[in-house]
Specification:
The structure holds 2 protein chains of 2 kinds. Chain A is an alpha/beta fold. Chain A contains 10 helices and 28 strands. Chain A has 2 domains: about 270 residues, Spore Coat Polysaccharide Biosynthesis Protein SpsA, Chain A (Alpha-Beta Complex); about 80 residues, UDP N-Acetylglucosamine Acyltransferase, domain 1 (3 Solenoid). By secondary structure, chain B is α/β, with parallel strands linked by helices. In chain B, strands 17, 18, 20, 21, 23, 25, 27, 28, 30, 31 and 32 form an 11-stranded parallel sheet that branches. In chain B, strands 5-4-1-8-13-10-14 form a 7-stranded mixed sheet. The chains are: A alpha/beta, B alpha/beta.
Chain lengths: ~375, ~400
């Protein structure tokens, strides 16, 4: 391998944390949620891997993955249409009945054979509930230098608000780390710590052979959860090191946080934090540039190509192909692809999914703490 | 596998009348319409018409063009059999030649065309902005039983003498060809787009090559020779939008017309006839607090804090607070600093326009010049570029150039 490439393969779990955003994953999964005006959230992790020199990426899908397949195609936009490696989408395996994995251990067990036949020495694993510009090669370097069995990436930050709020029992776990000189001594599930914590990013690096051994053992013993049943159970014997990410990060943990994280990108510093130093790739739609027609009034927005704007827009994020007619008012909104806001409509604090139409003269307003969500193809 | 029709795209033109814009790149690679290059139009027309094999004949400054075309993937022209091929002049066992003329360029690539055994070859030009369905042109060619057809546009009679004109009978059969005549007998101007039966084209190319006095040009040699021999030649009427963007003013005008599709007829917003291009890969554009944007086209990566009126901005253009951009075409990566005024002009790629600099001016009595700034030029703070200026070198702060 030349220096610019790393000797690792990537594994992405696109369905992890689906349950946090039930509205947005009605017909898709976490990985294919549109984000930042022209991306899907998986674009960040895929681009990070590719930019770090990882050219062999497996995506183990669980359900609702049509939109993801459509988005990824052959992987060309991420330069993952490769003879060796490239993009590998692993659907649930059907034998008599379709078996859907219930935990990461099962998911990995389903590709053990594949893993055994790869040539990369290391494995990088990640979920897709975060948008971040992340350098896997730096993390791998730290992993190798520390001699760790496993390295986990984390950020030092407060836990998302909705994680701290009392809520119904959730199947989605999140992890916080207790560290001693870089080594993880304790992992806590669903902590309610209100201070700054070591919040796991769900990104792991380990040797491929190590992963195969651990998963084979765990699977045959009926374990399901990788963090709880494999890592946490062996923290005293395994050398689990932590790698701190200092840069910008966007967590999608609820519809509200989805809204907030889009809005935060209207701030220059945040946008640069997410899109530098390395480029983020996405599927191309070949839209024409966005047109601002006479009468348009815009202030503080981010917009993708293909929009036609004749009305007023303020503090909003517009995805590709959004149409805002004359006299319409859009304020503090996140409007996904091909949303149409007809003449005279007045919307505020609204998240519209793809192909939503807000008909003429309608007034729909949420609040800053509770944005209204309009589902895919709905007409208001 | 034989192809019914393949396309040969003449992209070797220097575009010398675009001056500063074509110093480092061929005319077909000149950016157009916010996110396109001129060559995107014929290439997209090909793929939208079902033509999947295109040879691009390059000669002048081909680097940018070669890199832009790449493997043809953005136009869906990365094909197993066929696809897009860039064809520069090459060295042969018997020596090497530049392309001497349009016909010679095709002649030198006869073996490329033969690989696909086409029945028909369409000759396209890489310097026109036009959305055209070549399959309809081919249908016409076949219906007429033609050996050669040329696409023609009706032009105003008083302008006719600037064009190559086709004189036709009632059945669209060509009876005479007049190249820029003083006394036009027709107002049907050739668009420089031809369909040939391949066997006929090949025969005339070989014959033309053998004539030492020939200029090896389609208009001056091949077409007159076909007429001389009484071949079946027909004129196909095209009445959509068509613009030869060979001059600064016509390039500027065509860009401005994109802003007014309802009247100008060039519609880039047609879902059924998309124009494809290589993507910048930048994030969505930002209209920041305090910015004013009116009747403009803005694409990915732009950051607008100033005022933008009736202009086209390409990917990654920055307009700082207090800057004014009006009636302007600003190409990718250009930065317009605070307080600068940029009007009625074309600014090429990766230019920096310093604070409070002035580039171009709105037209006043008798003064309609389109100021032009070439790529990678640095215009210093407070510099002044007059409405007729053609700038291809850096201009120091405070200096004036007219």
């Amino acid at each position: 391998m030349v220096n610019s490439n790393v000797d690792a393969l990537g594994i992405i779990f696109p369905n992890s944390h689906d349950a946090l955003v039930p509205e947005l994953v009605g017909e898709r999964l976490m990985a294919s949620i549109p984000f930042a005006s022209r991306y899907r959230i998986i674009d960040f992790m895929l681009s990070n891997m590719v930019n770090s020199g990882i050219g062999n990426v497996s995506i183990i899908v669980r359900k609702n993955y049509h939109s993801l397949m459509d988005h990824l195609g052959s992987g060309r936009e991420w330069d993952l249409t490769r003879k060796n490696g490239g993009l590998n989408i692993v659907p649930p395996f059907a034998e008599k009945t379709v078996k859907v994995y219930s935990g990461r251990v099962e998911a990995l067990a389903s590709i053990l054979d594949f893993l055994r036949h790869q040539k990369e020495k290391y494995v990088v694993m990640s979920d897709t509930d975060i948008a971040v510009n992340f350098d896997f090669s730096a993390m791998l370097k730290a992993h190798v230098e520390s001699g760790a069995d496993v390295t986990v990436a984390y950020t030092e930050e407060k836990l998302p608000e909705n994680f701290l709020a009392n809520r119904q029992e959730s199947k989605e776990f999140y992890y916080t780390l207790k560290l001693n000189d870089g080594r993880v001594t304790e992992m806590e599930i669903n902590s309610k710590d209100t201070g700054v914590t070591n919040f796991s990013m769900g990104i792991y690096i380990m040797e491929r052979e190590f992963l195969i051994r651990q998963v084979s053992y765990a699977y045959t013993h009926g374990y399901v959860n990788f963090e709880r049943d494999v890592l946490m159970a062996q923290l005293d014997t395994l050398n689990v090191q932590a790698f701190c990410h200092k840069g910008y990060i966007a967590h999608i943990t609820s519809l509200k946080s989805y809204f907030d994280e889009n809005m935060k990108l209207l701030d220059e510093e945040n946008l640069n934090g997410l899109f530098t130093p390395n480029p983020i790739y996405t599927k191309i739609r070949d839209d024409n540039p966005t047109r601002y027609i006479n009468g348009a009034k815009v202030n503080n927005i981010m917009a993708a190509d293909g929009c036609v704007i004749e009305g007023e827009v303020e503090n909003s994020v517009l995805f590709r192909g959004v149409k805002i007619a004359k006299g319409a008012k859009v304020k503090n909104c996140v409007l996904m692809q091909d949303t149409v806001v007809e003449a005279g409509a007045d919307i505020e604090y609204l998240v519209s999914d793809k192909n939503v139409t807000i008909t003429a003269g309608k007034e729909v307003k949420g609040t800053d703490t509770f944005p209204v969500y309009v589902a895919k193809y709905q007409t208001v | 596998m034989a192809k019914e029709m393949i396309a040969m795209l003449l992209a070797g033109g220097q575009g010398s009348r675009l001056y500063a814009l074509t110093q480092k790149l061929a005319k077909p690679a000149v950016p157009f319409g916010g996110k396109y290059r001129i060559i995107d139009f014929p290439l997209s027309n090909c793929v939208n018409s079902g033509i999947d094999t295109v040879g691009i004949l390059t000669q002048y400054q081909p680097m940018v063009l070669n890199e832009y075309i790449g493997n043809g993937q953005p136009w869906d022209l990365d094909r197993l059999h066929g696809g897009v091929h860039v064809l520069p002049p090459y060295q042969k066992a018997s020596g090497s030649d530049w392309y001497k003329g349009t016909a010679n360029a095709i002649y030198q690539n006869i073996s490329f065309i033969e690989r696909y055994s086409p029945q028909y070859v369409i000759i396209l030009s890489g310097d026109q902005i036009c959305k055209q369905d070549y399959s309809d042109f081919l249908r016409f060619h076949k219906e007429k039983g033609a050996e050669f057809s040329v696409a023609v546009m009706e032009v105003p009679w008083d302008e006719a003498s600037r064009f190559g004109l086709m004189v036709t009978d009632d059945n669209d059969k060509i009876t005479e060809f007049q190249e820029k005549p003083k006394n036009p007998k027709s107002n049907l101007a050739s668009m420089g787009i031809y369909i040939f039966n391949w066997d006929i084209l090949k025969k005339y190319l070989i014959e033309d090559e053998a004539d030492p006095n020939s200029e090896n040009d389609f208009g001056n040699n091949i077409i007159p020779n076909l007429l001389r021999d009484g071949r079946n030649m027909y004129a196909y009427h095209f009445n959509g939008y068509w613009k030869d963007v060979g001059t600064i003013s016509s390039l500027w005008e065509a860009n401005m017309e994109v802003l007014d599709p309802e009247h100008s007829g060039i519609n880039l917003f047609d879902e059924r006839w998309k124009i494809y291009s290589r993507n910048s890969g930048m994030t969505g554009h930002r209209i920041k607090p305090g910015a004013v944007v009116e009747n403009s086209m803005i694409t990915d990566g732009c950051q607008i804090s100033g005022t933008v009126k009736h202009s086209i901005l390409f990917a990654g253009v920055q307009v700082e607070a207090g800057a004014v951009v009006e009636d302007a075409v600003v190409m990718g990566g250009t930065v317009i600093k605070a307080g600068a005024v940029v009007q009625h002009c074309i600014v090429a790629e990766n230019v920096v326009i310093g604070e409070n600099a002035v580039v171009g001016a709105m037209p006043s009595d008798g003064e309609k010049g389109v100021a032009t700034v070439g790529s990678n030029v640095y215009i210093g703070d407070g510099a002044k570029i007059g409405p007729n200026a053609m700038v291809s070198d850096n201009v120091k702060g405070g200096e004036e150039q007219w």
